[in-house]
Amino acid sequence: GAGVSQSPRYKVAKRGQDVALRCDPISGHVSLFWYQQALGQGPEFLTYFQNEAQLDKSGLPSDRFFAERPEGSVSTLKIQRTQQEDSAVYLCASSLVVGTGGSYEQYFGPGTRLTVT
Amino acid sequence: KQEVTQIPAALSVPEGENLVLNCSFTDSAIYNLQWFRQDPGKGLTSLLLIQSSQREQTSGRLNASLDKSSGRSTLYIAASQPGDSATYLCAVMGGGATNKLIFGTGTLLAVQP
User: Fold this and answer.
1) Chain B nearest CA to A17, separation (Å)
2) Using an 8 Å Cβ cutoff, are B52 and B101 in contact?
3) Least CA distance to B90: which residue of chain A?
């Protein structure tokens, strides 16, 4: 596929369960981003990877949230001991890292809708 | 801290009308600004990206302008169609190493046939 893919598309978890959300970026894209979108809101930044290095995790809301990208391609966002306030759509985006003058355009996946009951 | 605001929050227009969506941001030190479209239950589709050095970008019936000094952008949609119904989001990319996007809350557009 040519685009960013995410799985699962929908996830229902009982409060206290751990979940893992997967993102497959566009092949060759160095940068990978995770965003959280609450109902009726715009997406909010969670974390950023350049290859396998997590360069910014300032948006992660608590230490229950953990992201990794061990081989610089696929990324997993893990949420431990889920709470109702974690219910949201989790979006993944990827982009090329180019030199000065590049567009840094981000391409988004369809998202994973997480519902915590 | 950068904040992005979109007005109006919702808009309903009859088919064929031209319309303007507004986006404002508080910190003019941006690298670029993007307009996205989001359909219900779907991800984001990039419509237009304007670099900080540019004033506008056009794609088909869409035209986006950027006035960085005043912290404003507009998205102009000509001859609206029912298929244009969606939520429109603007996002700015600030400077620094992360290149994260900061989004507004969106404008929900309904084009009535």
Assistant:
1) 24
2) no
3) A42
Interacting residues of B62 by C-beta distance below 8 A, sequence separation 6+:
B35, B47, B48, B75, B76, B77, B78
Q: Encoding tokens for residue B106? A: 């969106």
For residue B21, the distance in angstroms to the closest alpha carbon of chain A comes to 15
User: Encoding tokens for residue B107?
Assistant: 């404008």
- Do A9 and A24 touch, CB atoms closer than 8 A? no
Which chain A residue is nearest to residue B45, measuring alpha carbons? A108
Q: Give per-residue pLDDT as tens, B42-82.
A: 889 999 999 989 999 999 999 999 999 999 999 999 999 99
A25 burial type by CB count under 10 A (0-12 exposed, 13-18 middle, 19+ buried) = buried
Residues whose CB falls within 8 Å of the CB of residue A73, separated by 6 or more in sequence, listed in order: A24, A25, A27
CA distance A12 to A109: 19
